[in-house]
Amino acid sequence: MEKTLKELADYLGGEVIGDENIKIKGVMTIDEAREGYITFVSNIKYIKKIEETSASAILVSPGITTKGKNLLVTKNPYLAFAKVVDLMMSPEKVYPGSLDNSARVSDSAEIGANVTAYPFVFIGENVKVADNVVLYPGVYVGDNCQIGKDTVIHPNTVLHRGTTIGERVVVHSNSVIGCSGYGYAPDGKKYYKIPQVGVTVIEDDVDIGANTTINRGVLGETRIKRGTKIDSEVMIAHNVEIGEDTLITSQVGIAGSVEIGNNVILAGGAGVAGHIKVGDNVQVGGWSGVIKDLPPGGTYLGTPAIEIERMRKCFIIIQKLPEMKNTIKDLQKKIEQLEKRLGSD
């Protein structure tokens, strides 16, 4: 597919500086781009590369100018880049719209129009699958599950009984949703498994990465709200509620009964202790440990997670600890010598 720079500008709502009739056939990185391709600059530290790139055009933010280069100016070049890739380079997805002969579908299941079930899919009793759903090979859908329209579930994913999946949800391979949580009651020196009899609800437009686990509620539900994006290898425990348009990146662990607000970002490896509340618009840095409630709107770092500016000062102090230790030892010696002198007077 080829588009003129003017056609791309109209599609993105941007403005062309330079030759609007130049043909674009794809997107490449600024270091690798060559004639016929468009690239982008979203970080100010890469602006100097605009002069060096061989790309036919560059997506830039307002205020960036350069001589001899074709620019497509947009408010958000990174978002524009994603949209151009989707428009010009994403392969068209064509699904059979039928159930493979090897798929096992219970008689009580309700299957919508144009549903695709690839080989060895299992669909249990009283399941409802809406129109245009795609179930890749090896997907297991337990009893009483519901899957909304236009949802795509990738290979070997497991939906345990009673799980509800909304519309336009994407679940990547080997994820497990609605499994029993980790709960045991002490019984002397042994432990008694607490039955997990709640459900899991995934609302519309949620993405879930590969190898992610989301437990069902002990009682009640675990709920992931609309538009939230969850990376691969994330662990979400029982009765967690995650708000709308929140980003949960890889290797995050969220313990039971946590409430996370809207537009929150949990960076890679962050951990949240049980029964914690994290307010709207909070950002938590990578490998941080949240052990107390966080009010809305702050940025936190470290273990335990504290305000980022305070933690940065702590990091500086930590690096100076060896020298500080030696200074303290020297001071202790001097104090001892003074005490001896005072004692002898």
Structure explained in plain terms:
The chain is α/β, with parallel strands linked by helices. It folds into three domains: 3-88, MurE/MurF, N-terminal domain (Udp-n-acetylmuramoylalanyl-d-glutamate--2,6- Diaminopimelate Ligase, Chain: A, domain 1), CATH 3.40.1390.10; 104-308, UDP N-Acetylglucosamine Acyltransferase, domain 1; 316-345. Helix content is 16%, strand content 28%. The strands form six sheets. An eleven-stranded mixed β-sheet has the order 10-13-16-19-24-27-30-33-36-38-39, with helices on one face. Strands 8-11-14-17-20-25-28-31-34-37 form a ten-stranded parallel β-sheet, with no helix packed on it. Strand 21 (184-187) and strand 22 form a beta hairpin. The protein is flat, with a radius of gyration of 27 Å. It starts with a strand and ends with a helix. The model has no long low-confidence stretch (mean pLDDT 96).
Would you kindly provide a brief summary of this structure?
The chain has 345 residues and is α/β, with parallel strands linked by helices.
> Which sequence of strands runs across the widest sheet?
10-13-16-19-24-27-30-33-36-38-39
The chain-level structural class is alpha/beta
For the sheet with most strands, the description reads: 11 strands, mixed
Label the CATH architecture of the largest domain. Answer: 3 Solenoid
Shape: flat
Kindly identify the CATH topology of the largest domain.
UDP N-Acetylglucosamine Acyltransferase, domain 1
N- and C-termini, Cα separation: 95 Å
Class of the largest domain in CATH? Answer: Mainly Beta
